[in-house]
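pasting for ref
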Amino acid sequence: MVRPLSPEVLARVSRVLWAAVLVTLPVTSFRYFPFLGETTQVRPLALYPLALLFPILLLRRLRGEIRFALPGSWVVWAAFLLAALLSSALGALDPPIELRGGVYAERVVRAWVTVVIGSLFFVSAIWMNQDEEQVRFSARWLLIGLCLHFLWSLVQALSFYTSLLPRSVLREWQTSFLMRAPIKNRRFSGLAFEPAWLAGQLLTLYLPWLTAALLTRTRLFRSRWVEPALLVGAVVLLLLTYSRGGIFSSLATGLLFVVGPARTEVVQRWREGVAWLRSQGRPAGGGSIRRFVLGGLMIVTLMAILTGAVFVVVQKPYVQALFSAWQRADTLEEYIIQNYAGGRAAYLWAALGVYGEHPWLGAGLGASGLTMYHHLPDFGMTTVFDIARQLAPDSQAIPNPKSMPARLLAETGLIGFSLFAAFYLSLLAEVRALLRSERLRFFGLVGIFAWIAVIFYNLAQDSLATPNLWINLGILLGLAKGSLSSSTATKETL
């Protein structure tokens, strides 16, 4: 007779697998996935440990070892899924014609697979983070995964700027486990598919924890220098991606964060810094002088690193085009094209054209790419090289909106888009509950930063399978649900 596994064993296995999920998040396009074609770019390595973890979590939930099920925002998510299902069903009644081997049913199935993947990440994050200790465990392993980005970026730097590692060797190494070779123009991509994906990960996964830790003086590791060092490294790596969208999204997120929910912490840290400088400026002993000098050297060093990174970034022609294109362009259309943004603008235009044909329920989840070519603007078919290459007779590419709002409008219509927006607003409401607790305020700030970051991130990506959308918000929702449940139970007992 086989004895059932004890709750303790299942809990330990769950923690190991969850740590594996978090550490492997940097690998966004793992080469070895069955049944996926070469055009499928979203291939998170974390899916492998997640596939082992979720059945265990489901078993623990059925056995009552996980105390609560799902937060209230899941009801809104379910409503969105019903609207998307209705859209897909209605689209099947009059499907668009086949495009380069892609048929309506196949595109819809692929889209729903991404929905399932995203939902699994979301639910797993919620169920694995029911209290503060579990959330700290998740944060530490998440940041350990960031170190893998740093290590592989150092390998790329050796190839980009020295002769120690030939570019051909780096290409062979990287393509042995990733779907894409290193970028030719020395843009760092880490373990992500491309530099923009790395910038998105830094913004949505790692910067929320590191920024909130710095402002609230919260330690996730024993040494007090780990979080500041990781923050500086993440900012420098973000700049070296030369991702204009990622850099500006990070600036906008940081600005909204510091003038909004974190303004109290910002003012407090500023006052403490001024008071420290004044007190150390009139030292009473040698120890004070040494601390003052070391602190000053550290500040100067960090500022030098960041200033140097910014200087390198602004020298990049890809970045300079944002400013120099104004002088060469006579119209907004020409400015967008000369800014290397013509492809994205054309796809956005085409997706909105699909939405115009199906304004209420859309063309069906995943089906927008089959008709987007019919709605491309003239400049997209004449002056944008990327689109011209995709329109070539031998191309097998099927376009995508490259923006979550545009995709949802095109594929689920105004109804689906509204429900998705309501879902994100419900996430914000539940995460903000953490700010009411002084003990949990740090986690509330992480959640608000992550929420703002994901909103900006969604403007330039359109895949529901990307873990960036779900991990941090799921972790903080789990804590919010768990803390509120515990508080309610305590009050009822009293």
